[in-house]
Design brief:
Two copies of one chain form a homodimer.
Chain A lengths: L1 E12 L2 H9 L11 E7 L2 E7 L7 H8 L4 E9 L14 E5 L2 E10 L18 H16 L7 H16 L3 E7 L4 E4 L5 E6 L4 E3 L6 E3 L9 E6 L10 E2 L5 E5 L2 E3 L3
Antiparallel strand pairs in A: 1-4, 1-12, 2-3, 2-4, 5-6, 6-7, 7-8, 8-14, 9-12, 9-13, 10-11, 14-15
Helix pairs in contact in A: 1-2, 3-4
Chain lengths: ~260, ~260
């Protein structure tokens, strides 16, 4: 299994604090040490860092921890291999283009016996169930909306449908974004917290680090952090319900059910 | 305009030395300071670092200069914007998936009035002529070989054809790779050098740095470095002829004309 970390905000924000705690789970406070990755959207642009090394010993993870990259949509992943060997092409997040936007996807779970027939366009490069699921999602959306990206509600409903289908194969917690919307699906385990004014101090579980967000924010900032398990021990995190698909926008979860 | 740097080797090699000189042109010894990027293949996996900052002041470029990433296929680019604003989505190299492999592309030149109709699959995310040209190349290859990747000679001939067509629009020097083959097209300016035994010392033009490759190599190593202009001042570089498309494999250029 693996762990997921996501962030969605109404203003570009750095993820240094959360990534500090999260990346410790990649070999220090937990054993998700078979690679890691993180994607940052900046407008339509997207940076993707991946490494087959453990996140605690990766020089690139060190840059991500220390060099504040400001972004409104971030997806990170630390890997404990279940399917597919430890190699770069099997590291999440995965990225493809659809409708002239980059789409980024990371998965926590296991989908045994999930081998969908390729329907034409998107092919997995690596050997993970996760990348195959991502390809099927994009293929489905492309076929459903060949003219381009639909309004978010239609997109949500189509995604809901294909997500339910894939979930029949196993555990399918995931984060998905195209830099505008931020989807979070809970199959078994996924939590989030929304930080907004009045901001307070937060203390990491995995490292003895405290940040006082009041010193770093303006009153209108809003930041949602989504993670497999809570990253802080002095805040109240909300568990997403199994089977629930949320869309975050500007740091707030929406639902269309 | 921009500058290109590529490397193709028969064993995974780091590009620290060449990138040291090349990245100096991104704001220090030359003015290509509107962003930079570099892609490294490791097997089928591919890392891509891009930044809209100048390469001399980018913390991520610093990691690339100092942290030896070993790869057989590397494509790098420093940008001086001609079309498309200075932003992350306009930074080269660009990456897409075709036939279950990542393809990476970087362009030096300018293609005024190049606005091909989208033929269906690949859409540019940014606003550059370069990304549009890359999308057209992949679209053409996909349509020509819908069953999957053909033998290299057929691939070369198809690429030759679409390259000639796009070259009618302007200056189209480019590097293209899917991690197995390495294509280099010269429209106006592109040089290469093949380093192999007996190895000697090389001295950069853009920085006062010398490396003695004999100390770092084994006798069977072979490395081709391709660049817009030579990076060293004590070696003989070969100019690729305008209109020529080379394929490098294991550090050697092949031709199929």
């Amino acid at each position: 299994m693996c762990q997921l970390l996501g962030m969605n905000c109404n203003v570009p924000t750095d993820i240094c604090f959360s990534f500090e705690g999260f990346s410790a789970r990649g070999g220090k406070t937990d054993d998700h040490s078979d690679g890691w990755g993180i994607a940052f959207f900046e407008g339509k642009g997207c940076r993707l860092f991946i490494d087959a090394k453990a996140s605690i010993s990766s020089p690139i993870a060190e840059v991500v921890r220390c060099y504040p990259i400001h972004s409104t949509h971030v997806i990170a992943h630390i890997r404990k291999a279940t399917q597919g060997e430890i190699s770069l092409e099997n590291c999440h997040p995965f990225r493809r283009e659809l409708w002239g936007r980059y789409w980024v996807f990371a998965h926590n779970g296991d989908l045994p016996d999930f081998h969908p027939q390729s329907m034409g366009f998107y092919h997995a490069v690596g050997k993970t169930d996760s990348e195959r699921a991502f390809c099927l999602i994009l293929e489905t959306l492309r076929q459903r909306f060949p003219e381009g990206q639909p309004p978010v509600k239609e997109l949500y409903l189509a995604l809901r449908e294909i997500t339910d289908l894939i979930s029949l194969y196993g555990v399918f917690n995931y984060l998905l974004s195209e830099g505008e919307h931020f989807f979070a699906h809970c199959s078994t385990k996924l939590s989030y917290i929304v930080r907004q004014a009045p901001f307070a101090a937060a203390h990491l579980i995995d490292q003895d680090v405290t940040v006082d967000f009041q010193e770093l924010t303006t009153p209108s900032d809003r930041v949602a952090v989504i993670a497999t398990t809570p990253l802080t021990d002095n805040e109240v995190w909300t568990q997403i319900q199994p089977g629930e698909l949320l869309v975050f926008q500007d740091g707030l979860p929406l639902k269309f059910d």
